[in-house]
Amino acid sequence: MRKRVGDQVRIAELRATDVQLLEDIINGAITTTEPVSNLLRRCLVLAHRLKNENLSEWASKELNGYKQTDDLPDYRQAPALSKGLFLGGGGAQINDQPLSLHILEPEHRAIVDTLKLCQPIAAYESGPKKENALLPWPPTLTTRYQRAFIQGYALNRAWQEIPASLLAALVDTVRNRVLGFALELQDQLGAVDNDLERLPTEVVERSMVNQIYGGTVFIAGAEQKIVQVSNIHVGLHDITELADALKVLGLNASDISKLQSAIEEDKTKHGERSIGDNALRWLKEIGKSIGKEGLKVGIDVAKQTATKWIMQYYGLDM
């Protein structure tokens, strides 16, 4: 009897700890004085209680930084503005000259046309608040194109310019996503007697998709395999790519076949460059099928993604 009472006390204490953990995360996310790094460490504790590897991996990468080969979240990427310092004869000098990247070879342009912010979140949290940051070009790239930009001038050094506002937005985005995730879990906690370990896996994963990943990552059904859909792009009039993309949303062959038929029917009235009534009707009705099998994902997010791919097929969202 004494052991049973002791077990009940420990269970009650553990559940109270779960409630407090979420409250600490929420309260810390609301105030801008709490470092985001602290929130992420609490997320690691939360991931341990939830036994959720996806949350643990995301929080760890935000804390420790991403590898250059990692698929970066959208909020850690942005179009880059490159500038350079040019030196000419007789002491001539051109400072902060914007660089047109069209003269670079495609493989070299890919290195510098996009900002990839891979450092730990703390590096951006403590970074410059008002002045833009600079990310130098690789020296070998600067040397290769030293004489390629301005006749009579040599490129002495080049860099990507990182707006201070972008760094602030990155930090704020992580804070907001942690807050949204914690709030969703808090709403569900009462249904499981305040026991985080009893939260259904699909509830946690759905919150991860909608709050942490921002609706751009989907969790595949039984295997819980993460598929990055933000990089999927459907080519112009490529029905095969469109079909393959829609399969990621869990649509079955019958649903995809209906869309293909709708597109063929619309061609006779609207041609290939304009979406027709049949395809639009398919989009309106497809929400009934999305999410029935394959992925645990919000219907609104899935419909938006399907719409984007169909518009790409028609060349309307390039």
Structure commentary:
It is a single chain. This protein is α+β, with helices and mostly antiparallel strands. It has helices spanning 2-30, 36-50, 53-64, 106-112, 121-125, 139-144, 164-189, 201-212, 239-248, 253-270, 277-285, 299-313; strands at residues 77-79, 81-88, 93-98, 114-116, 133-136, 153-162, 217-219, 226-228. It folds into three domains: 2-71 and 169-200, no CATH class; 74-168, no CATH class; 239-313, no CATH class. The protein contains twelve helices and eight strands. It has a four-stranded antiparallel beta sheet with strand order 3-2-6-5. It has a two-stranded antiparallel sheet with strand order 1-4. A two-stranded antiparallel sheet has the order 7-8. A hairpin with a 4-residue loop joins β2 and β3. α2 packs parallel to α7 (164-189) and α7 (164-189) runs antiparallel to α8 (201-212). The longest helix is centred in the N-terminal third of the chain and has 29 residues, at 2-30.
